[in-house]
């Protein structure tokens, strides 16, 4: 009964986040922290940062993997899957519906889209301030924050985040190796190493076997599944990176027109949740709602297998004193990465006028000082953005 109650709670909370988390993966992490760490206290800031750092290492949608990890910590494998479904389903359904209306109505230039982008500025700024105070309290870690910020901001490459985290881990290893600390979070993941090994084996077996099976079979669905699975397996840097991969897989082959692809891309910017759900739009365009659900399963399957496969080993490694020292540096690097993403692309694509900045300030106060629920902040941002466009 307790397990069922927890699963229902996870589903309700993750679905609420799936309905209100606009602004891309970094903004999602801000919403997650506000809901799971600050409000519900399901885990502490350090545990949350540890989980974020792990998911930055892995290919796939980092915010979705963080959500899966939190669900797994709360209620095992079932909790992770329920958390994934709740966070993902709203945008999947919205994008499947957009298949039928995106080319009929011109929605992408509406003011509410700009309002939602400004909302992301307030959400990420709030997350950065909260995490920086806890994870970079001394000058050494503040310096690591700065270095990670510079690396990820000045080197426009998808592996820059991974490199920054590796360097920060090495710096933490040397700078804090003599420091007795309990800095690694006390998050407990009820997954066995045997289960983790099975998940990693399945991941690599599909990654290697699906292209071979696709080449040997004439079944179109196998080739399509392989395209989505490989796209989800080999992407570092978030949902925006997967879009050109999907374009190369499906537009030149004629499975989806360039016009429809671009319309779906615009729709994906307008809905909350992970950008990887753009696969639902492509799948629905090719094969109706069943195609949309199948494409979603295919592109997210690698992320699910990887997070379930690595969590048992990651949490065990953090018990090591040397690893705890490295995690101090890694956690500081996560803050620097968040600041970098806050500037580019969130700030540069959202704050275009003095009115945008004013709205961002209002939304930040609503979230940080007036302690209003995130969904109220999101709705306010959308409504005011539309009003500003009309005026």
Question: Helices, strands, pairings?
Answer:
Blueprint: H1 2-20, H2 25-39, H3 45-57, H4 62-101, H5 111-135, H6 139-154, H7 160-175, H8 193-216, H9 220-233, H10 239-250, H11 258-270, H12 278-317, H13 321-350, H14 354-368, H15 374-390
Helix pairs in contact: 1-4, 1-15, 2-4, 2-5, 3-4, 3-13, 4-11, 4-12, 5-13, 5-14, 5-15, 6-7, 6-13, 7-13, 8-9, 8-12, 9-10, 9-12, 11-12, 14-15
Provide structural commentary:
The model has no long low-confidence stretch (mean pLDDT 85). By secondary structure, the chain is an all-alpha fold. The protein has one domain. The chain is globular. The protein has 15 helices and no strands. The chain starts with a helix and ends with a helix. Keywords: Cell membrane, Membrane, Transmembrane, Transmembrane helix. It is found in: Cell membrane. GO terms for molecular function: chromate transmembrane transporter activity. It is a multi-pass membrane protein. It comes from Alkalicoccobacillus porphyridii.
């Amino acid at each position: 009964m307790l397990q069922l109650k927890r699963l229902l709670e996870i589903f309700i909370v993750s679905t609420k986040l799936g309905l209100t988390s606009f602004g891309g993966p970094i903004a999602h992490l801000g919403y997650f922290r506000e809901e799971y760490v600050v409000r519900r206290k399901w885990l502490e800031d350090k545990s949350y940062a540890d989980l974020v750092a792990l998911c930055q290492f892995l290919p796939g949608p980092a915010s979705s993997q963080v959500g899966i990890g939190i669900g797994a910590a709360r209620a095992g494998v079932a909790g992770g899957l329920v958390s994934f479904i709740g966070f993902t389903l709203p945008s999947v359904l919205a994008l499947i519906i957009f298949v039928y209306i995106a080319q009929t109505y011109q929605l992408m230039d509406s003011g509410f889209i700009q309002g939602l982008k400004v909302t992301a500025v307030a959400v990420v700024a709030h997350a950065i301030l909260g995490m920086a105070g806890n994870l970079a309290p001394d000058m050494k870690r503040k310096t690591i924050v700065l270095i990670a910020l510079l690396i990820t901001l000045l080197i426009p490459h998808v592996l820059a985040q991974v490199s920054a985290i590796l360097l920060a881990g090495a710096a933490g290893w040397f700078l804090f190796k003599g420091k007795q600390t309990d800095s690694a979070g006390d998050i407990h993941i009820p997954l066995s190493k045997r289960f983790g090994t099975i998940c990693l084996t399945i991941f690599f077996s599909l990654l290697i076997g699906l292209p071979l099976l696709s080449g040997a079979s004439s079944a179109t669905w196998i080739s399509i599944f392989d395209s989505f699975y490989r796209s989800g397996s080999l992407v570092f840097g978030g949902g925006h990176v997967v879009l050109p991969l999907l374009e190369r897989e499906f537009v030149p082959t004629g499975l989806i027109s360039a016009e429809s692809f671009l319309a779906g891309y615009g729709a994906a910017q307008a809905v909350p949740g992970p950008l990887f759900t753009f696969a639902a739009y492509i799948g629905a365009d090719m094969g109706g709602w069943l195609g949309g659900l199948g494409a979603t399963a295919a592109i997210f399957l690698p992320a699910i297998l990887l997070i379930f496969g690595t969590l048992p080993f990651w949490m065990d490694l953090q018990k090591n004193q040397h690893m705890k020292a490295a995690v101090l540096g890694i956690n500081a690097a996560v803050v620097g990465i968040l600041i970098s993403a806050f500037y580019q692309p969130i700030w540069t694509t959202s704050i275009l006028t003095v009115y945008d900045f004013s709205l961002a300030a209002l939304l930040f106060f609503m979230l940080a000082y007036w302690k209003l629920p995130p969904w109220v902040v999101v709705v306010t941002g959308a409504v005011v953005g539309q009003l500003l466009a009309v005026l």
